[in-house]
Automatic annotation (TrEMBL):
Residues 32-415 form the Amino acid transporter transmembrane domain. Its main location: membrane. Keywords: Membrane, Transmembrane, Transmembrane helix. It comes from Galendromus occidentalis. Pfam families: Aa_trans. PANTHER family: AMINO ACID TRANSPORTER, TRANSMEMBRANE AMINO ACID TRANSPORTER FAMILY PROTEIN. One of its GO terms (cellular component) is membrane. One of its GO terms (molecular function) is L-amino acid transmembrane transporter activity. This is Sodium-coupled neutral amino acid transporter 7. It is found in: Membrane. It is a multi-pass membrane protein.
Length: 439
């Protein structure tokens, strides 16, 4: 992928953008695509680690009704902001997320977007390592019993470290990782495997019922669902480059692609969440794969495929994050600096992954960041366009301004609410480790 240079009055800031980060990790975009091909690319960009967490999300929400209702409301809001981005791209025919932000809001907004991508890439990198440890824990629990972690070489700290150093670290030294694009694209089908296992595990009979709750409980449950939904549905970073590559670029075709994408994701996530919750109930794990018996060859195959997917995708995030760090650095880019940054990225995420064992915690913080990204940046685009109504020939600047302001406020409010809820939450009942070593 070629990286162009954009020259601004304040200097140069290379275009290593959000859509490049996500396209490297999951989307291979070609010219002249149809709207249904665009929908597949959007699905490809969104479908990932969030699907493993969805059944736990339903359990945390206290039932199917609350979780599904919140998901539907958020889905409608997310769809609208995707169309907002496409509309903003049409103002001057922009083809990238960064170009749209620069056009409507200026360089500072562009750099803020780069920083948000950096944090998101870092958080997802930690998530991948945690998922690797989860698969090993489930495997060893099935093969060696509940005290498997008493053996040092079976502890998650060792398995994460060994797998990461042997399989991931060597890939972090490559400057170009185009050969991994296809493995990552194929990896989207790997993420359907937990859906299949959950469907097969469901017996069709469940004694679970949605419990009666007060309004306060409903609000608390809704807050628990929001970060997972934002994390799982976030495709906004690739909307504009995919829109730019439509064979017939129009908001109508983009609306069709968005609708098909969201409906497909809703069907996949809801199926996994509902069946996983009905099957395992309150015992469901933050990573649904940990609920299955690894003695089954089909489960073992799924775990192995997940580990391979995490290994293949992690280096792409390192490259994207490293490029953003280089662009934000005042020093010239060199191979030695690139390698140094990649090594620092790798070992810092390794330490974080062996320290934070709860996938739910990581997804909640990334979800809080996603809340801001999904609403704040599209809202800023509308605000910028309305304030420059003569340049962009905005016919109804006041409604555009108000809608943009509402989106920004929603994004900031959700991000703050989710973060505060996580920080001050007193719910520590979920024991995430399958085995705790004896002290």
């Amino acid at each position: 992928m070629e990286n162009g240079l954009l020259v601004y009055p304040g200097g140069e800031f290379r275009r290593h953008t959000i859509e490049e980060a996500r396209s490297l990790a999951s989307v291979h975009i070609t010219q002249g695509i149809s709207w249904y091909a665009a929908a597949f690319l959007l699905i490809n960009a969104a479908l990932g680690a969030g699907i493993l967490h969805y059944p736990f999300c339903y359990a945390e929400a206290g039932g199917i009704v609350v979780a599904t209702a919140v998901q539907i409301v958020m889905l409608l809001l997310l769809s609208s902001t995707m169309i907002v981005l496409a509309s903003a791209a049409d103002l001057e025919g922009d083809n990238t997320y960064h170009d749209v932000l620069r056009t409507t809001c200026g360089v500072m907004a562009q750099k803020a977007a780069a920083l948000s991508v950096l944090l998101a890439c870092y958080g997802v990198s930690v998530t991948f390592m945690v998922i690797i440890g989860d698969q090993y824990d489930r495997l060893f629990l099935s093969l060696h019993g509940s005290r498997f972690c008493d053996s040092f070489h079976l502890r998650r700290e060792f398995t994460i470290m060994a797998t990461s150093v042997l399989c991931i670290l060597p890939l972090c030294f490559f400057k170009k990782l185009d050969f991994l694009k296809y493995a990552s694209t194929l990896g989207v089908f790997v993420m359907f495997y937990p859906v299949l296992l959950t469907a097969l595990a469901f017996s069709g009979v469940s004694t679970l019922v949605d419990r009666e709750t007060s309004l306060t409980d409903l609000l608390d449950s809704a807050i628990k669902v929001i970060p997972t939904v934002c994390f799982a549905y976030q495709t906004h970073e690739v909307v504009i480059p995919i829109y730019a590559n439509l064979g017939r670029r129009s908001l109508g075709n983009m609306s069709l692609a968005t609708a098909l994408c969201m409906l497909t994701l809703f069907a996949v996530y809801s199926t996994t969440g509902v069946l996983g919750y009905l099957t395992f109930g309150a015992a469901v794990r933050p990573d649904i794969m940990q609920n299955f018996d690894a003695n089954s060859p089909w489960v073992l195959l799924g775990m192995a495929a997940l580990i391979v997917k995490m290994i293949a995708t992690y280096p792409l995030l390192v490259v994207c994050g490293g490029k953003i760090l280089e662009d934000m650095s005042p020093w010239a880019s060199t191979d030695s600096r690139r390698i140094f940054l990649n090594i620092c990225w790798f070992f810092s995420t390794l330490v974080a992954a062996t320290t934070i064992s709860n996938l739910a915690d990581i997804i909640e913080y990334i979800g809080a960041l996603a809340c801001a990204n999904i609403f704040v940046f599209p809202g800023c685009c509308l605000l910028g366009a309305s304030l420059q109504r003569e340049r962009f020939k905005v016919k109804r600047p006041i409604p555009v301004f108000l809608f943009g302001l509402v989106l920004v406020l929603i994004g900031l409010a959700l991000a703050l609410l989710v973060t505060l809820h996580k920080v001050f939450s007193e719910d520590h009942s979920v024991e995430t480790l399958l085995c705790i070593p004896r002290s």
